[in-house]
TrEMBL record:
The chain crosses the membrane at residues 45-63. This is SAF domain-containing protein. InterPro entries: SAF. The lineage of its organism: Bacteria, Bacillati, Actinomycetota, Actinomycetes, Pseudonocardiales. It comes from Amycolatopsis japonica. The keyword Metal-binding does not apply. The keyword Zinc does not apply. Residues 1-37 are annotated as: Disordered.
Length: 236
């Protein structure tokens, strides 16, 4: 009786055994298959080693960086010249202790509470011993000048301590302002105070600026200036 069964996998049509592709003639795994297995495992080994190195390096970096940081006092909100410091004005922040930088340690907050500010500073500014005490504005070579701005000429968020750029925006028919300052002329300054002028919606902004620029700025008529806020800690 003739069998109608199909040849088994690994057998040829005559029923003779035939080596499977991943086995050699003796029935052992072929070398090429073993090599492929090792090649597949190698990337996983490398990835595992790299992961361990990164974890160890990250832990070492975190430990050394946190050990170099010290808690110091910073301002929690903008404070104007003459403002008497309260606990609500201060917060502690961890920073790298750079040599030569005079900062106030957080555990010495009592030494500045109840004392007036010697200058106007913005929120987040690190507090220094010189910033507290007798008024330090204007410093030598600096002056305080008042400018009047209308709605839209200064950001509503403007506050004491904010660094700004004062820009001439208007001009006469001759192409310059009444004082000879061309549109686009600018000066860097620091806000000392912001006071609403009255019912006409104008605002008086006191600016600390160098003496020469103060004389030029004082001659620019109201309505021909705009104040642009700059990042805290920027150059004057």
């Amino acid at each position: 009786m003739t069998s109608t069964d199909s040849p088994a996998r690994g057998d040829n049509a005559t029923g003779e055994a035939r080596p499977v592709s991943w086995l050699d003639s003796s029935g052992s795994p072929a070398r090429s298959a073993a090599r492929r297995g090792r090649q597949r495992r190698l990337p996983h080994l490398v990835a595992g080693v790299l992961l361990v190195v990164l974890c160890v390096g990250g832990a070492v970096w975190w430990m050394t960086s946190t050990q170099d940081r010290v808690p110091v006092l910073a301002l929690a909100k903008p404070v104007p010249l003459g403002h008497v410091l309260t606990p609500a004005d201060l917060r502690s922040i961890d920073v790298f202790a750079a040599p030569g930088v005079a900062l106030i340690p957080a555990d010495r907050a009592a030494s500045v509470l109840g004392r007036p500010m010697a200058t106007s500073l913005g929120a987040g500014t690190l507090l220094t011993p010189d910033a507290v005490g007798a008024a330090a504005i204007p410093a030598v070579g600096r002056a305080v000048v008042a400018v009047v701005v209308k709605p839209g000429q200064a950001p509503p968020e403007l506050a004491a301590g904010a660094p700004v750029t004062v820009v001439v925006t208007a001009a006469t028919a001759a192409g310059t302002s009444a004082t000879g300052q061309a549109p686009g002329t600018s000066w860097r300054a620091t806000v000392v105070g912001v006071t609403p002028a009255g019912t006409d919606q104008t605002t008086v902004v006191s600016l600390e600026i160098d003496t020469t620029a103060a004389s030029q700025l004082a001659q620019v008529p109201a309505g021909q200036l705009a104040l642009v806020m700059q990042p805290a800690g920027g150059e004057r």
